[in-house]
């Protein structure tokens, strides 16, 4: 029985994905895996039993990836699982900003009951603009950014995108009508709306700063449904107060922007739809189950993608540093036990690597335990697992 620990409320549809071999609870002190949403794990101590973390969502800046790899924990996310939910909210926020919807509804609520609210003199203060023909800059054209960009093209907007790391797969998803900008300065130039959809990391923290905002049209609307800290909120407030920015819509609050009349703040709602939460929980549950039962890695963010069919009754998997002679040390220890390697697969991702060795001729459980212990003692190895071929065979 595998133990799965949850921290946040996880969609019941996703939890139902787990088969009878998995027990889900919030307290287990010896969990095999965590299933989480946005809980911040940077100050959290991982128990030695923990082998996997399934992040039900796209962003994983709440997880200390380097430490997870060092402690032999595979981390998974759910690429694209909530992208449509974010797209729909971003489109809604562009319309809300352009049509003064929130201000108008608030005004209607506070007039005398029965007053004629359709009087031109009163309602003209809420005159809006249309999206049709306006220019949208999309920074980051991955799962969310590409959906926003394509939807905006379909709404008749002129769309320009910036993504220096655009994958071939992501490029295939983009409408041909989307122009590609060579730089951040070029993408924001003359844009009526600027929306960011990049992961938060060292490079993107503060990427929308005072200098970039000074290049916006003063009538521009900025949207940040990616992460707090990608936009410099002090620069936003300065620009709003000096009429160099019209509106800021975001999913992330702080004391600087809280309560500003031209800022709309939502409580991190981008991925909060029934459908997105179910998609993400299902994807994370599947990735975690696959890893626990076969050792295959799908959608890992700290380890390489690696999937091989079971070639023998037993499989040894190792998470280790990406340094010379690891495979030599691993295979010579296996050979010393007179165990035969049926298949060996290895792949690296940055400083860490993952090795799958399918073996046969294991004499007995004592021999298995001795080999696993010796492999675990190789200094750069952070986790060794022995996995028996799942019932149902060669997966
Ligand atoms: N508000 C919410 O509830 C949600 C927020 N998010 C946030 O949005 C981010 C993006 O989500 P996805 O599109 O699903 O991720 P993704 O990984 O599919 O796309 C990110 C894109 O950003 C690009 N990128 C990376 N660094 C860049 C840079 N310096 N300049 C320009 N482009 C850059 C990448 O090449 C990639 O195409 C997530 O990392 C997460 O932080 C995602 C889902 C829900
Ligand atoms: O609703 C959530 O769990 C957060 C979604 C999110 O921010 C993400 O997927 O990156």
TrEMBL record:
The ACT domain is annotated at 315-389
Query: What residue ranges carry the coiled-coil annotation?
Result: none
Q: What CDD domains does the record point to?
A: ACT_3PGDH, PGDH_like_3
Q: Which residues cross the membrane?
A: none
Kindly give the SUPFAM superfamilies that the UniProt entry links to this protein. ACT-like, Formate/glycerate dehydrogenase catalytic domain-like, NAD(P)-binding Rossmann-fold domains
Q: In which pathway does it act?
A: Amino-acid biosynthesis; L-serine biosynthesis; L-serine from 3-phospho-D-glycerate: step 1/3
Q: Which domain of life is it from?
A: Bacteria
Instruction: State the reactions this protein catalyses.
Output: (2R)-3-phosphoglycerate + NAD(+) = 3-phosphooxypyruvate + NADH + H(+); (R)-2-hydroxyglutarate + NAD(+) = 2-oxoglutarate + NADH + H(+)
Q: Which Gene3D superfamilies match?
A: 3.30.70.260, NAD(P)-binding Rossmann-like Domain
Q: What is its EC number?
A: 1.1.1.399, 1.1.1.95
Listed A to Z, the keywords are: NAD, Oxidoreductase
Into which family does the record put it?
Answer: Belongs to the D-isomer specific 2-hydroxyacid dehydrogenase family.
> What function is annotated for this protein?
Catalyzes the reversible oxidation of 3-phospho-D-glycerate to 3-phosphonooxypyruvate, the first step of the phosphorylated L-serine biosynthesis pathway. Also catalyzes the reversible oxidation of 2-hydroxyglutarate to 2-oxoglutarate.
Q: What is this protein called?
A: D-3-phosphoglycerate dehydrogenase
Q: Which organism is it from?
A: Limosilactobacillus alvi
Query: According to the entry, what is the taxonomic lineage of the organism?
Result: Bacteria, Bacillati, Bacillota, Bacilli, Lactobacillales
């Amino acid at each position: 029985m595998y133990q799965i620990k949850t921290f946040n409320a996880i969609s019941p549809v996703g939890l139902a994905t787990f088969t009878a071999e998995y027990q889900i609870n919030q307290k287990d002190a010896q969990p095999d895996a965590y299933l989480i949403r946005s809980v911040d794990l940077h100050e959290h101590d991982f128990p030695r039993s923990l082998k996997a973390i399934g992040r039900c969502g796209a962003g994983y800046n709440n997880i200390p990836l380097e430490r997870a790899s060092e402690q032999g924990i595979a981390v998974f996310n759910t690429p694209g699982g909530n992208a449509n939910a974010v797209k729909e909210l971003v489109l809604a926020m562009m319309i809300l900003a352009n049509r003064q919807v929130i201000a108008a509804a608030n005004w209607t609520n506070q007039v005398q009951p029965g007053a004629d609210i359709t009087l031109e003199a009163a309602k003209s203060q809420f005159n809006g603009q249309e999206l049709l023909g306006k220019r949208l800059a999309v920074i980051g054209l991955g799962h969310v950014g590409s959906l926003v960009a394509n939807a905006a093209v379909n709404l008749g907007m002129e769309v320009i995108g910036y993504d220096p790391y655009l994958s071939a797969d992501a490029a295939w998803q983009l409408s041909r009508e989307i122009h590609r900008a060579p730089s951040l300065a070029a993408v924001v130039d003359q844009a009526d709306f600027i929306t960011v959809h990049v992961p938060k990391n060292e490079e993107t923290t503060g990427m929308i700063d005072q200098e970039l905002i000074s290049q916006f049209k003063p009538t521009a609307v900025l949207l940040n449904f990616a992460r707090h800290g990608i936009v410099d909120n002090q620069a936003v407030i300065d620009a709003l107060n000096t009429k160099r920015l019209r509106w800021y819509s975001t999913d992330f609050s702080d004391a600087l922007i809280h309560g500003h009349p031209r800022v709309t703040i939502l409580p991190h709602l981008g991925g909060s739809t029934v459908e997105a939460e179910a998609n993400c929980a299902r994807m994370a549950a599947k990735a975690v189950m696959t890893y626990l039962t076969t050792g295959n890695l799908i959608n890992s963010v700290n380890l390489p993608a690696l999937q091989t069919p079971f070639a023998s009754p037993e499989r040894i998997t190792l998470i280790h540093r990406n340094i010379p002679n690891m495979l030599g040390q691993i295979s010579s220890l296996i050979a010393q036990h007179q165990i035969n390697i049926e298949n060996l697969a290895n792949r690296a991702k940055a400083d860490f690597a993952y090795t799958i060795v399918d073996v046969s001729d294991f004499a007995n459980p004592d021999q298995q335990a001795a080999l696993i212990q010796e492999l675990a003692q190789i200094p750069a190895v952070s986790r060794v697992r022995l996995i028996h071929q799942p019932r149902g065979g060669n997966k």
